[in-house]
Amino acid sequence: MRTYRCVCKNPIFFDNSQCVRCSRDLGFCPACRKIGALLPPAGERATAAPCDQFTCGNADCGATLVKCLNYSTHNVCNRCVTAETAESERLCDCCRFNETVPDLTVEGNWRKWYQLEAAKRRLFYDLSTLGLPYGTTADGIEPPLTFDFKADSIPKQDFWRAVGQKEQVYTGHANGRITINIREADEVEREKLRVDMDESHRTLIGHFRHEVGHFYWEVLIRGRREDECIAVFGDHNSPTYSEALERHYKEGPPSDWATNFISAYATMHAWEDFAETWATYLDMTSALETAEYNGFGGQRDPVHADLDAMVTRYQQLGIALNEINRSLGLLDLVPEVFVPPVIEKLRFIHQLVQWGRAENGALLPPTEASSVSGEVAAVSGGSRNVA
């Protein structure tokens, strides 16, 4: 995750919506792909401006922008759309994928939605950085990507209660639709679940990265690279997912799971092994980029970097950061152990990302698309019309 600068030269970050030094509104500009100050349309010295239009404050841009509707109306977003786009679409390139959002008449749901959107924006940053294909049916992506943020049924008194099987919302993925139970945005509830399920980490961004792994199995693997995937992760057809799920929650993971898998949950089924490894790959690429932008060195371009070098650097950072966390009484930041079978699974994901990027030039931002066009002929996997 990169850092940015306000027009007042103060450092600003991906989640910021206001500069703490000069108090200007900030927003992500889709034209230059950066966070920047939102200035009056006539420039910095203008004294009045239309209530809904701004100029991107980044010196190399100057695009005319409108705040995303979820930014201007609900303040759960910090992204903008161009003035031209706003004529037909007021939702930004992240919010337009929402199918269901939390009921804001329920106390506490606004904060949950805010946290869900913050994590989702980081997911889309990951996907854009990697150049992966995603979109709606109109974009030519099958299955189309959508998000449901739903709550378990609650009584009129607005407190949590135990719910029946038919009332419970399960976090998961089905044919491009990612569902997140908004209870996961409650820090106390999420920590209870983490402890109950004996997990090293349980985070919102972790849920998004895991579930989008299932999405990319559908987009990049199904009917195209299933044999190659089976050779690495095992046969997803046998046992069936329902059989594997029942066995996992009845018997638990094998005692030696850490010798072949990135997590205990990855042992449940080949699809979960793929999704857990995919999520770990996104964790790694995001952490390495953030480390470089914050002065720790390393390589921040996961598509062109060597996988073994990335894993080695991530392990080095992990050891140091884990020790820092332990010195403060916190959980390990990088709990995973990268044994050889796990590294080979990460290598498959690394190659898959290259295939996806090579197939995806039409959906990349203009500033990135030119760097992709030369890769299509060099990267194996063939060409695919995705837009």
Quote the distance from N terminus to C terminus.
27 Å
The biggest sheet amounts to:
5 strands, antiparallel
Q: What strand order characterises the main sheet?
A: 3-4-5-6-7
Number of strand elements: 11
What is the averaged pLDDT score?
86
Structural class given helices, strands, pairing? alpha+beta
- The 3D shape can be described as globular
Any overview of this molecule?
- By secondary structure, the protein is α+β, with helices and mostly antiparallel strands.
- The chain has two domains: 90 residues, no CATH class; 276 residues, no CATH class.
- It contains eleven helices and eleven strands.
- It has a five-stranded antiparallel sheet with strand order 3-4-5-6-7. It has a four-stranded mixed sheet with strand order 8-9-11-10, with helices on one face.
- Helix 3 packs across helix 5, helix 8 crosses helix 9 and helix 8 packs across helix 10.
Task: Map the helices and strands.
Elements: E1 4-5, E2 11-12, E3 26-29, E4 34-39, E5 54-56, E6 64-67, H1 69-72, E7 80-82, H2 83-86, E8 98-100, H3 109-130, E9 146-150, E10 172-174, E11 177-181, H4 187-196, H5 204-221, H6 226-233, H7 241-251, H8 270-293, H9 307-327, H10 340-358, H11 366-373
Helix pairs in contact: 3-5, 5-8, 8-9, 8-10
Question: Can you give me a brief rundown of this structure?
Answer:
The protein has 387 residues and is of the alpha+beta class. The chain has helices spanning 69-72, 83-86, 109-130, 187-196, 204-221, 226-233, 241-251, 270-293, 307-327, 340-358, 366-373; strands spanning 4-5, 11-12, 26-29, 34-39, 54-56, 64-67, 80-82, 98-100, 146-150, 172-174, 177-181.
